[in-house]
Amino acid sequence: MYDPQIGFALLRSDRLALGELAALRRLIRDSLDPTAPDSPLRTVLKGIECSRSQLIDQLPENRLAELCSCGLLVESGQRVFSPFRAHLVEGFVIVTDPASAGRPRSTWYLDPLCEGPQLARLLIRRIASRGLDMGCGCGVLSLVMSSFCDHVIGVDINPRAVEFSRFNSVLNGIANVTFMESDLFNSLRGQEFDLIVFNSPTNKEGDDYRDLLESGEPLLARFFSNLGNHLRPDGYCQVNLAMNDYTESRFVDRLATWIRAGERDLRALTMVCKRHKNDDGGTWKRGWATFWRGSSFLSEVDWPYHLLTATPSPLELSQLVLRLLENHELLNSQRHLPQLTWSEGLCCILPWKQTLGLWDVPLAQVPDEVALLASTKPLSFSGAKHLDIWIGLCLQKGLLGVL
Description:
Number of strands: 15
Strand order of the largest sheet: 8-7-6-9-10-12-11-13
Helix content: 25-40%
Number of helices: 12
Order of helices and strands: HHEHHEEEEHEHEHEEHEHEEEHEHEH
CATH topology of the largest domain: Rossmann fold
Low-confidence stretches: 335-388, 393-403
Strand content: 15-25%
């Protein structure tokens, strides 16, 4: 019943009226609500086929026909399946491809939302005029940005991605987002943005191009050499990327070369969530990097943000990221820090990862009177007090600094 190769199926919002799409959005959103009971529609949108009769019993009249008309569901005899997966992200219904799980996939296969919801929580949420979602994929970051940007442009070299993004924006009734095909900044000459987001298609391929989701480091070189021309003076750029430190070349040094090629000074702080040693002696890392204008410095901190609990709100995390950037500017300039209160929204630090939250301070080096807090469970801070004590003691002992 399923296509042997995924990434070919298309969505068609133009086959339904806006009122019909709005009704489908409410229906899908209610079905995907984590507090809602299991239902046939929820089951099929999560990848398990069900019988036609089950769906007819659940759905209002004509809804099954509408779901099939736009391509979300496919009827095969008395069985119904979906070639896609639907997700609920901050109230938006997001439709994209399923995980490939080793199956062959087409050239135009879309990211199955492996990291999108997590990255959306880390966006800097300032009220902004213009936002850019580079490599928009299914449009999840574009739609989240639409809630705090006056207008968002989403671009992707993959024409199928552009169509999916348009479908998701129309399905969610979002009018302040525009999607277009573009190879990085090629279609955006002369345009500047307050916030640029890039969930870059890089993984463990190094310099080698594999496909559109593993495009290799040359893509990053082209992006960063042009970034300064499109970022407003007070703007931010946030990038999800893979980084390779080779025995003869560090990623941060290559990054500095790409930025210099753009003739605009940029600062960057990369929050590294994963790292491991390669067989050749190098190190592979994945992180969330933030860039902004200013005299150049490039820093890294270890932060396992992929393990964050659901407790901190996206706005609290945004404040946390901004505070972290401010503190690293001060650390880099070797100015006195009057306080280090950046604990807003950070409810849990994970001692089993052997790091001190946002700065790479091993627990073994943390003063005993503070380390006792971690004796039986993850450290929880209801406010800034305990965390500030910890940071203050670490500063006194010289354990904090820019990597």
